[in-house]
Design goal:
P-loop_NTPase; alpha/beta; about 325 residues; Rossmann fold; two-stranded antiparallel sheet; ChlI/MoxR_AAA_lid
Amino acid sequence: MEEVQTDSFEDVQYIREKFERVKKEVEKVIVGQDEMIEAIIIALFSDGHILLEGYPGLGKTITVKTLSRAIDAQFQRVQFTPDLIPSDITGFELCDPETRKSTVQKGPVFTNLLLADEINRAPAKVQSALLECMQEKQVTIGRDTFKLEKLFTVLATQNPIEISGTYLLPEAEIDRFMFKIKITYPSYIEEREITERQVLDEEVELNAILSPEEIILLRHFITEKIPLHKESVILKYSTRIVRATRPDADGNGHINNLIMYGASPRASIYLAKAARVYAFLTGSEIILPEHIHKMAYPVLRHRIILTHEAESQGIEPDDIINNILKKVPILEWER
């Protein structure tokens, strides 16, 4: 892996080039899916988890595996099934009958990138165990509590069309995901290139551009480079956008009958953090409204619960978000 000098962190352009190189390493294997790749990178530098929704065979697993190699990170994949139990992902205590001593066998959550494949196939107990890992970044096994890696990120997948043998994710767990990314089919040109690459079966050489330790340092660097002050206009703006997703919000009469529940305060935090990283990656020294707008869709779409009336009309959460972004003004004087 290439070495990154700590003093180079002061060179903003150098860091942005590193980000671009990580993206290009992933693109050596993955064709298209730019939104998914960009979102995963932003989540890594924002300390957030991602929910990936898409049909099978769209490259979700291989994307995460490839990214783990590009950042020299540990990677684990768990196929969620109805018979899964919490210890299958967290670990368990093993007792030796001869010595009467117990040892802890750590589970796959002790990693940097955890791919929770088809997360909605796991029962409530497993989802609750994963919830502790996501929120607290720790695991309780028996009477002991173990800290997870500092760079611990869950990338969960679910199929939007499957109902049989699945469990609805609790709102509390969905709210722990920073982003929900909807993955669509590739274009004709992209699909043709995917097929050509697989037919040729060529081995792709990947380089490790960053390390987990460097990503943690870069998180702090970005926070210092683009600070968010207490009276920040952009903080007020992003908070008003999140509040506008709630049916009882002022001036929300036009969509009150479409929203059952809106986004929680956690969405305000994630929106500001994600917009800061996105602003940095796009070369901006400050967060602009367009950065908030870009991040609003993946941050809010899984936090807006629609009414039956909205669903019957074919309205999607993205439609609601688009409406809100048009109506919420940017007012510097507003508190």
